[in-house]
Structure formats: C-alpha cells, structure tokens
Amino acid sequence: MMIDLIGSAVMALAQAAGPEAAQAAAATAQSAAPAAAAVGAASQGVMHFIGQSDAVGKSLFGFLLLMSLASWYLILAKGFTHLRIRQRSRKFLAEFWAASSLEQVENEIATHGAEEPFAHLASHAIHAQKHHAKYGALKLEESGSTAAFVTRTIRKVIDEETARLENGLTVLASVGSTAPFVGLFGTVWGVYHALLSIGMADGVTINRIAGPVGEALIMTGLGLAVAIPAVLAYNAFVRLNRVYLAQLDAFAHDLFTFLTTGQQVADGAHERHERHGRHISLASSREA
Questions:
Q1: Which residue has better confidence, 204 or 77?
Q2: Sequence ranges of the domains in the chain
Q3: Exposed, middle or buried, 78 (CB in 10 Å: 0-12/13-18/19+)?
Q4: In degrees rounded to 5, what are phi and psi of residue 76?
Q5: Phi/psi of residue 268, nearest 5 degrees
Q6: CA dist 48 to 44, 68, 209, 211, Å?
Q7: How far apart are CA 279 and CA 277, in angstroms?
Q8: Does the pTM exceed 0.85?
Q9: Which end of the chain has less Cβ packing within 10 Å, N or C?
C-alpha cells in the first residue's frame, strides 16, 4: 500500500512536469513493481513465522537453535582436538622408536609432557613396570607378577583414553536423532494453528491456506538442517576413534613386549603401526 501511494505521488509530479517525465515515471513504477513483490514475499519467511507463532512454536525454535549451536561447537572442538592429537602422536611415536633406552623416553615425556594417548600410555606403563619391579606388591591392586600389573595398567589407560575420545558423541547422536522430530512437531503445531485461524476467517482461498501452511513447513526444514551435520559428524568421529584406538592397541602390545623383554618387537615398528592404521582406515571406508 505504501508503494502504491509513493507511485501515485511520483506520477502526479511527473504529469505536472510534462508528458516525457510522465512516461519515464510510469516505466520506473513498472520496473519497481517486481522488486516490491519480492520484498513482500521475503517478509513471509522464517522470522515472520516465528513472530506469528505462540510460546510453543518459539520454544521449539529456540530448542533447535540450542541443539545446532551445541552440535557445531562439538564438531569444531573435536575436529581440532583430533587434528592436534594425531600430529602429536606421530611425533611421539617417531621419537619413541628412535630412542636408545627407556630412560631417554622418560626424559622426553618429562620434558614435553604426556599430552596425547600414546605418551600417556607409555608413561604409565613404564612407571608401573619400574614401581612393581622395585617395591613389589604393596597394595591389593598391585598383586600378581610385574607383567600382570603392567597389563592391568595398560588396559586402564586404554579405557580412559577411549572414554575421553568418545566424550561428546552422545550429544551429537541425540541431536541427530531428535532434531527432525522436534522440527516435525513444530510443523504440526504451526499447521494446526494456521488451520484454526483460517477456519475463523471469512472467505477461504488458496492464498490463505498456502501461506501459513508453507511457513509451518519451515520447522521441518530447520530440524533436518540441525540433524544432518550432527549425524555426519558422529559417523566421522566414530570411524576416526575406531582407527585411532586400533593403533593405540597395537602400540600397547609392542610396548608390553618391550617392557617385559627389553627388546623391540621388530625393527621399524612405527612404520608397521602406520601401515596397520592405513589398513584399518581402508577397511572402515569399505564398511561405510
């Protein structure tokens, strides 16, 4: 309506100025009509639907927004963590298998710290082996031979690292499985209220039905937009964890043999670990 008033005013001024100005003003008004229609169509969007919805609709939209923020935070945080851990693990493994003695490995860990699972596992296993060999079984948890005590320590560390790597995956799985249903419920609620308002209005036309119902379908789209990245990220992180933990388990076997016999399993053991990890990665790709 405001566009029509402005156009009428322009036409009146143009007619007063002359016939050529009137023709130019008419052409300008015709070219501005599609733009005005586009602006009117844009107003019927997400924010218009949220503004017209009740407390339930706004709550569902806010819930989807929170789930999206939480999932993207976990995706970025865990992606950066995986990248950092893999870089530090490759560096530690190269230094570990190039070391001439366990004392050199201990000095390296004491200097740079055990900031990734392989260094954490090696540090605890070496400490357990030396502690049990020096003091014996002073507590009930230290009972058994040195090999048995080291084995229990290695298993405990691997369980801790597994729990640490899987931290946050439950949230991604929950978002991926529930977000589409939250969006669908928002659509059902929006369509219900749209039909109620249409039923109370006079003169039902296709325009009165298509607009509110189309806006209500936005909630389903929002639910899918929240769920799809969470599901893809969950599957990717599960695969990365499976490959990484397989490499950690292989390293634990070689480390146990090294601690109990004082000799490496084979020359170039870190290259074998890398080949083992690539083999598992290819197998996981085929399974996916």
A1: 77
A2: 1-43, 46-287
A3: buried
A4: -70, -45
A5: 65, 45
A6: 6, 21, 16, 11
A7: 5
A8: no
A9: N
